[in-house]
Design brief:
With about 110 residues, this protein is an all-alpha fold. Helix 2 crosses helix 3 and helix 2 packs antiparallel against helix 4.
Length: about 110
């Protein structure tokens, strides 16, 4: 596949789904550790603690494990933004040219009149 093919077209979706998967894996491990009383948890605050623990553990794991996917996502977003900027600049230039032509036509009509 080419570098702009399907493997790059959904980089944001792939990165996000992998990030969520890492979090859910960490949450599963934390819940199992809590269930078997390896981590002392009790009540709703204990479950919230396990969710926070999973989030804290998954963040550095995602940072290390998903660096390539993050770079692909960044490149994809950067390409889309630069394309949007160039299209916007072209559209503004076209509108300015139309306004300039209208002004020139108005001035020519005023000079003749």
């Amino acid at each position: 596949m080419s570098s702009t093919g399907p493997e790059k077209s959904h980089a944001t979706l792939r990165y996000t789904s992998l990030r969520v998967s890492i979090f859910l894996g960490c949450l599963l491990v934390a819940l199992l550790l809590g269930h078997f009383q390896i981590l002392p948890v009790s009540g709703e605050l204990g479950v919230i603690f396990l969710f926070l623990l999973a989030a804290i553990v998954s963040a550095p794991l995602s940072y290390v494990l998903l660096s390539r996917q993050r770079d692909e996502m960044s490149a994809q977003i950067s390409d889309k933004v630069s394309g949007l900027r160039s299209r916007t600049a072209e559209r503004i230039a076209a509108q300015n040219a139309e306004e300039d032509a209208a002004d020139e036509a108005s001035r020519a009509t005023t000079r003749q009149g």
